[in-house]
Design brief:
The structure holds two protein chains of two kinds. By secondary structure, chain A is mostly helical. Chain A is built from eight helices and three strands; from the N terminus they run αβααββααααα. Chain A is 63% helix and 5% strand. Chain A has a three-stranded antiparallel β-sheet. The longest helix of chain A has 34 residues, at 140-173. Chain B is α/β, with parallel strands linked by helices. Chain B has two domains: 1-86 and 163-172 and 180-236, P-loop containing nucleotide triphosphate hydrolases (Rossmann fold, 3-Layer(aba) Sandwich), CATH 3.40.50.300; 94-162. In chain B, the strands form two sheets. A six-stranded mixed β-sheet of chain B has the order 6-7-8-3-9-10, sandwiched between helices. Chain B has a four-stranded antiparallel β-sheet with strand order 2-1-4-5, with helices on one face. Chain B is globular, with a radius of gyration of 19 Å. The N and C termini of chain B lie far apart (56 Å). The relative contact order of chain B is 0.19. The chains are: A mainly alpha, B alpha/beta. Chains A and B meet through helix 3, helix 6 and helix 7 of A and helix 6, helix 7, strand 9, strand 10 and helix 8 of B.
Chain lengths: 193, 244
């Protein structure tokens, strides 16, 4: 999540003070991502250093500074909005590694390991979903942010379900070979280190 | 007293070499006002559990208590009455009768239970209106969208004095926004005192429940812990913003 570009987006609506930016950032992300005011001023300093924003009064206390987006900042915001995040390399996912390791250890029940993580993820999803129950406090930014989190967690649960099914099938089909060819998979996907 | 209680319930299909344990030694209690989800892969016994909970099938062993009455040993007529008056079913494929309008579909179980057509239709209208379907009451199922058909099915399941709602993959092939609307309606019924059981393989649906029971090979292998306060998530957010 880029605070830098989110602040640029807020500045593109018009000049703003640091404290105001913090409040608007939190509101625009449905209060799902809290932000401390120090992060805001550090980021604004860097935006100013890079020529993406400037403040009206260089001598004023930070809290008194009114920030504006520059033309270069507008261009940077436009470029960022249209640049897909780098999803081409699979991340080094701790949960995937745990299941892969569990599947190779003879004294560990990999299905039990999978279930522990499945239960934890569903519990997290229950908490996020319960936040959505009260429609009166359900603004659009909040709904979008909570949905994103639920879809992300749901994808992990689905992966656990698929891993569970694949491991069971593999253990039925092969009694002599290892159930998962870990080194070959890693070479093929080229996971990030 | 629980609205639904399964005690050591097992179901075996077939005999001898072809014998299959569909569910084994299931204990499950569902209180009024609570929503329980049963989650598991295909073939884990979810649908068998639901049909037994709804008295559509008898267990091979064990007891099924609905509002304190044991379904095992109950006469056919008493079971039919229990199903008409107490239990509402929601299926993945809606199961609406094509030749009846929305309001007729909803009022049918009441009429079958001996309530006059006028009273039954008034109750059905009220159930439809509570689900924002008042203006669709005279439409036939093929004139409704998928989401509307499922809402009619929910209205039919909760109309009258039903106190146990059983749903099998209730959001079926609906998109996530309509699926969420379906779960919100089931939850609203629970807030009104209904006990509900939803079986699903979908974690997003299951996450609407107060409690999620995990089924595997016919056995209840695990369940979620009591929910924490949702505010904890926002106070200690799991998503941390970072500079980039």
């Amino acid at each position: 999540m880029s605070i830098r570009h989110s602040l640029l987006a807020l500045l593109s609506e018009g000049p703003k003070y640091g404290f105001q930016l913090r409040q608007e950032f939190e509101a625009s992300t449905g209060d799902v991502w809290p932000l401390n005011v120090g992060q805001v001023y550090t980021t604004l300093d860097r935006l100013e250093r890079d020529g993406f924003a400037h403040s009206d009064d260089f001598d004023a206390d930070e809290r008194q500074k009114n920030f504006r987006i520059t033309e270069k900042g507008e261009e940077e915001l436009s470029r960022w909005l249209r640049t897909p995040p780098d999803l081409s390399q699979p991340p080094r996912d701790e949960l995937v590694i745990k299941v892969l390791v569990a599947s190779r250890l003879p004294d560990v029940d990999v299905y039990d390991v999978i279930q522990v993580h499945r239960r934890y993820l569903v519990q997290l999803m229950q908490q996020w979903t319960h936040l959505k129950e009260d429609e009166a406090h359900f603004d659009l930014a909040f709904a979008l942010a909570v949905d994103a989190e639920l879809f992300r967690l749901d994808a992990v649960v689905r992966w656990l379900d698929a891993a569970d099914g694949r491991l069971r099938r593999a253990s039925h089909e092969s009694t002599t070979e290892d159930t998962v060819a870990l080194p070959r998979i890693r070479r093929r996907t080229g996971a990030q280190r | 007293m629980s609205m639904l209680e399964l005690r050591h319930v097992s179901k075996i299909y077939g005999e001898g070499a072809t014998e299959v344990d569909a569910i084994s030694d299931i204990d499950l209690a569902v209180e009024r006002g609570s929503l329980v989800a049963v989650m598991g892969p295909s073939g884990s016994g979810k649908s068998t559990l639901l049909t037994i909970a709804g008295s559509l099938e008898l267990p091979t062993t064990g007891d099924v208590m609905i509002n304190g009455a044991n379904v095992v040993g109950m006469s056919r007529n008493d079971k039919a009455r229990l199903r008409r008056r107490t239990i509402g079913y929601v299926f993945q494929d809606f199961n609406l009768l094509a030749g009846l309008t929305a309001v007729e579909n909803v009022s049918l179980p009441l009429e079958l239970d001996g309530i006059s057509m006028k009273k039954a239709q008034a109750q059905a209208m009220s159930a439809l209106e509570s689900l924002d379907l008042g203006d669709r009451a005279e439409r036939f199922p093929d004139e409704l969208s998928g989401g509307e058909r499922q809402r009619v099915a929910i209205a039919r399941a909760v109309v009258g004095e039903r106190s146990l709602l059983l749903a099998d993959e209730p959001s079926g092939a609906l998109d996530s926004v309509n699926g969420e609307a379906v779960m919100r309606m089931i939850l609203t019924a629970c807030h009104g005192g209904v006990a509900a059981v939803v079986v699903t393989h979908d974690a997003k649906l299951a996450s609407w429940a107060d409690r999620v029971v995990f089924l595997r090979d016919g056995k209840a292998v695990d369940e979620t812990l009591p929910p924490q306060r949702p505010e904890d998530l926002l106070e200690h957010g799991t998503a941390n913003p970072s500079e980039s």
